[in-house]
Amino acid sequence: MQNVIELLQSHRSIRKFTNQPIEPDLLKALIRSGQSAATSSNLQGVSVIRVRNPETRAAMAKHAGGQAYVEEAAEFLVFCADLNRSGWCCEQSGTPMAEGMTEHFIIATVDVALFAQNVVVAAESEGLGICYIGGLRNNPEPVSELLALPEHVYPVFGLCLGYPDQDPECKPRLPLDAVLMEEHYQPVNPELIAEYDEVMRDYYQRRTHGQLNRAWSEDMPELLGKKSRPHMKAFLDSKGFKLR
After folding, report:
1. Residues 118-134 pLDDT 10s
2. Which of 33, 148, 192, 197 is least surrounded by CB atoms within 10 angstroms?
3. Spatial contact of 80 and 154, defined as CB atoms under 8 Å apart
4. CA torsion through residues 23, 159, 14, 175, sign
5. DSSP state, 154?
6. How confident is the model at residue 99 (pLDDT cuts 50, 70, 90)?
7. Edge-to-edge strand list for the sheet holding 129-133
């Protein structure tokens, strides 16, 4: 088994998978690993939906922006932030859940991220490849309908799981000094950003055989300089997450 630190630092997104299935016992072990993640106040605000129906998979792929690997991966899981189960407990006790609390929303969403990352690390330790599918939030309403999600549950992201049929290079990350700070927040260091920009240009040049020449700092205005999924606020309101 790989050293854990080496395993974590070798993460890549896999978008091509073999036809080899994942053994049921292994899949259950991965989900149990997710359940072992930290959870605030033991809320355990996560539900995982395994999608096997080919028609549903095809619809999910379409709603996620045409990502074919959603259909092709051995397993496709949808990770949901879930306050419905804990809300039911409140109802049974005669103390209704205080709806719309931002903190509850954050707790459940963070629980999902921690749970899923445990699943991912466990999967990669077993030779599996993964790809997160945040594109489900492009069309959260039809995704929710396909999964019959009740109030107080929303799909955070999907996850493709399978045995890799490709060996991509790890995508470089920002220099450690750009993210690890001492005692207080440090201003942006232009030299570190410029250094990383060149690393990313080289990476994209290799990955695309010279077709793409792009820097990280140039990507940020594309990402943050425009509205991003503005429908999510209304959608979350409709699912009972009326944040206050």
Report:
1. 999 999 999 999 999 99
2. 148
3. yes
4. negative
5. E
6. confident
7. 46-51, 75-82, 153-162, 129-133
Three-state DSSP class for residue 33: helix
79: β partners: 48, 157
Amino acid residing at 155: P
d(CA 117, CA 223): 23
The three-state secondary structure class of 98 is coil
Pairing of strands 75-82, 129-133: unpaired
Contact 107, 44 (CB under 8 A): no
Other beta carbons within 10 angstroms of residue 56's beta carbon come to 17
- What predicted TM-score, i.e. pTM, was given to this entire model? 0.95
The letter for the amino acid at 226 is K
Give the amino acid at 9. Q
- Within 94-215, strands assigned E span 129-133, 153-162
